Structures are given as C-alpha cells and as structure tokens.
Amino acid sequence: MTKAPGRRIPCPGGYTAFLPDPLPPEIVWTPDLVRGLSDADRLIGRLAGEGGRLPNSHLLIRPFVRREAVLSSRIEGTQATLGELLAAEAGAAVERSPADLREVGNYVVALEHGISRFGKLPLSQVYEGLLLKMGEKGNDGGQFFTPREIIRVMVKVIDPRIGETIYDPGCGTGGFLAQAFEHMAGGNNANISSADQLETLKSHTFYGREKDNAIYPIALANLVLHNIDEPHIWHGNTLTGQEIYGGLFAGAPALYDVTLMNPPFGGKESKDAQTRFAYKTGATQVLFLQHVIDNLKPGGRCGIVLDEGVLFRTNETAFVQTKRKLLDDCDLWCILSLPPGTFVNAGAGVKANLLFFTRGRPTERIWYYDLSGIKVGKKSPLTLDKFEEFFRLLPERADSERSWTVTRKEIEAKNFDLKAVNPNAKSNQDTRTPEELLDLIEAKGREVAEALQALRAQPPQL
Fold this sequence. Notes:
Blueprint: E1 6-11, E2 15-20, H1 31-48, H2 58-65, H3 82-96, H4 98-118, H5 123-138, H6 141-144, H7 148-158, E3 166-168, H8 175-185, H9 195-203, E4 206-210, H10 215-225, E5 232-236, E6 243-245, E7 256-261, H11 271-274, H12 284-294, E8 296-307, H13 308-312, H14 317-329, E9 330-337, E10 352-359, E11 365-370, H15 388-393, E12 403-407, H16 408-413, H17 434-457
Parallel strand pairs: 3-4, 3-7, 4-5, 7-8, 9-11
Antiparallel strand pairs: 1-2, 5-6, 8-10, 9-10, 11-12
Helix pairs in contact: 1-3, 1-4, 2-10, 3-4, 4-5, 7-8, 12-14
C-alpha cells in the first residue's frame, strides 16, 4: 500500500506522530493536540500490550481501504496508530463541521491531562464523551449517541449471556453492543471462566449494521476500544439491503438471540426500502420494528426504543398491521414510558418508550411502567436511581402507582393503540360538563347578588 503523504512530528518521550499533508485549511494542529494524539496512542499500547499499536488494527483499516473515502488517504500503511486514526477522523469531520474537529482536539488534550494525573484513563470513556459532544453540537444525537443510562437499563432487562449473539441493525456508534459486552463479561471479566468463552465474546458475539459513511469507522473504533476484537459491522442500508462493505459481516448468523436498538426518530424511507417489507410505510421506526421481529430467533429477546407516535398511531394501516404482527409473533411483556426530554442531551426532544419482547409466543398481556412524570432536562438528565422501583417490580410484574397491566382484549378494542396511559395517575383535568359549569356560575352569581343586596340594606355609618 502506498503511504499517504504527510510528515512526522517529534513528541516528548521519543515518539513521532504522523500528520497528513496537505491538511484541510480549517485545521490548526496545536502542540497540545499533537501531544494529546501521541499520548493517546501510547496509552492504548500500554493497556493492550501491543507496543504502542492498536489491538487488531487491521479491523480498523480494512474498511477504509475498501472504499473511496477521505479517511483512506489520511492513514499511513496497515498499522495505524490511534494518533493517525484520530487525525483521519478529524480530516473527515471537518468536512461536516469545523466544530467537530475542535472537539477532537479538546478531548485528546483532556486525555493528556488525565494520563498525567491518573497514570491511565479508560480511552473508551473519553471516546464516548466525544460522541456525546458531537451529538449535542450537531443537534443530531440520534445518529451519534443514545444516553448510556437508557442503554444500561435495556441491557440489564434483556440480560444477554455468553454464547448468545447480539445484534443492532442500526448500531450508530456501537453503544448497545459495547454495553452488552461489559454486561456479559462482568467487572474485571468476572463472568468469563475460560479462554474459549473470552474468544467467543470478543470474536463471535457482536453484529451490527450502519449506513452512515462517517459513523461506520467511528463505531469500529469505539467497539475495539471496548475490547471487542472483532466487531462484525456491516456497512450499508439495512432497510434497502444496499451494501457498501460487507467483509466484516461474513459468517453472520441468519437469526439472533438478542437485539438491542434505537432506530432513528422521525425518519422517512424511500419506496426501495418499503418493497422489502410486508407492511409498507415510509416510517423508519416501523420498518425497523418489522426487521427486528423477522431477524429474532424463536425465543430471542429484544429491547427497542420507539417514539410515542409509533405506539398511539392507529390511522395508518402499516402501523396497525406491524403492531398486530408484534403481538401475534412475540410476547410484548413490558413497555417502559420514559419522561419527556430523556433524549434532549443527545439532540432529540421526542417522547419515547422502551419495549421489551420475546419472539415465539403471542402477547396475552402487557405490563406498563410509567416514568413520564419525572422532570428531566439538559441539566437534570435521567439517572439510574430513577429505575430502582422498576427493577424491583419487574420480576413479578407487580402493580403500583406507576405500574399496571393491560390485556390483549383491551389493546385490540383500542385498535392496537399501545400508548402508556397510567390509570393510577392523579389528574388535574376538570371533568365537569358544560351544563355543570353553567349551573355553578349561575349559583355563584346568585351568591354575589345576595351579598350585594345585604350590603346595600345596611344603614350607612357616620
């Protein structure tokens, strides 16, 4: 492979960082940024025992050299260091927004200070911080970042185990897959009892799909930084089947044990995508829901984020048909209603719900839990402690002020409207009829008239 044009910058400790040349004019390579890149690369090397190189770096490079993209001209050789990787991503990010590049610089400098203070810092956490900031700045968090508290709750509920396959058909930056790995491995790999289990977890467990050219390499980097040696991520459009690069997806199973995903809110799909599905609609989330059902094994489990509109809409045939299919083919055993503003830090203000279901048996009843009354916002995000009662009641599907059960018959009577409406919620709505209100006004008017008459009847006081 021909080396990309560039130059090497000497850094403290005898390290030399590679910088692409020519640089986009918007990029300013400060000494702090160069040092941050070099320190980040050396930290990865120490943690992974790879002598200053990324573990399995070929997994990061292969997609780049297989497609025509600006990234491919930014990377030198086949053993890219983290510095080269970040430089490449910065070169591509600046085409979207110079602000993205400044965030890259900010985070590598933050990483540099973290190293000097703590000796080491989990780079995956820094990387996730960058993804969150990108979502905030671009107001496009659905593409970049799902709140980690939501992901942790979903993974804990589904409880994936070693030996099961995990799938996210719209994986974005890989947050669900990364968190599933941490859950399955346990702290300090406590759940892993053999080398075979570790090999299975790192190389034969995690599968995803992502269509965005810029997000795809970020997902690969994020998953490798989370110790997933072989993330099997397919590059292309899941809904149309149009492939850009499928080399990492070779040998993927036809059906999966576990699916975890957050499909894009409010997306609209072309006719090409709709032709692949039984129930045709332009709504991205509805098509993804059909895809998820069809790609689960019998007995397979799913946790999925859906906005409120998908649950309550009954005026479009495909919405109703898809929800009927969900209840016919799967046991939808829980719907967790999230507070408005849960996704505001990721750039999305929609009201959302978490749905949990198992394929292979029809739904007879649904257990609901309602968190919609909790106030959340950018400065007061939803935290894990708000789910304590939910996890306590979940095993028995117990009723409470925030939880209740709805039968299949009740759902069908509402034409498959699945929206969470808490029957125990205290309502401030005035339920009096217009006639009752008019009678009340008339009665109050008489009281006022009688009071005025009594005042006039009193003799004036001197």
